[in-house]
């Protein structure tokens, strides 16, 4: 739900409500603690580069701070979701194998009758 400010080139994000996110969202890392405002790349004096390249050390420090705020999944969650992906991929492949076998068998029978 981002809005662009009138003619300013500034993007405003949804403001925090003060409510705690659901436990599932916190566990899965779906909740973000990003600030309420993201500025455009254009600086006040019209320079296209803006302040993005001003201080690489400050940028790295901010990145480390934001990475520290991330709700990383536990080892158990990673293993469970990985197992679920493999199970679902196996079930999907078995489903399509079965559908392919049925179609192939049906077409073979129809072509035998006609030929």
UniProtKB/TrEMBL annotation:
InterPro entries referenced in this protein's UniProt entry, alphabetically: SecE_bac, SecE_sf, Translocase_SecE/Sec61-g
Biological processes per GO annotation: intracellular protein transmembrane transport; protein secretion; protein targeting; protein transport by the Sec complex
Transcription regulation as UniProt keyword: no
Keywords in alphabetical order: Cell membrane, Membrane, Protein transport, Translocation, Transmembrane, Transmembrane helix, Transport
MF (Gene Ontology): protein transmembrane transporter activity
Annotated membrane topology: Single-pass membrane protein
Signal sequence interval, chain numbering: none
Ranges annotated as spanning the membrane: 78-103
GO cellular component terms listed in the entry, alphabetical order: plasma membrane
Alphabetical list of Pfam families matching this protein: SecE
Coiled-coil residues: none
Main location: membrane
Family classification: Belongs to the SecE/SEC61-gamma family.
Known partners and oligomeric status: Component of the Sec protein translocase complex. Heterotrimer consisting of SecY, SecE and SecG subunits. The heterotrimers can form oligomers, although 1 heterotrimer is thought to be able to translocate proteins. Interacts with the ribosome. Interacts with SecDF, and other proteins may be involved. Interacts with SecA.
Function: Essential subunit of the Sec protein translocation channel SecYEG. Clamps together the 2 halves of SecY. May contact the channel plug during translocation.
Name of the protein this chain belongs to: Protein translocase subunit SecE
Species, as recorded: Tropicimonas isoalkanivorans
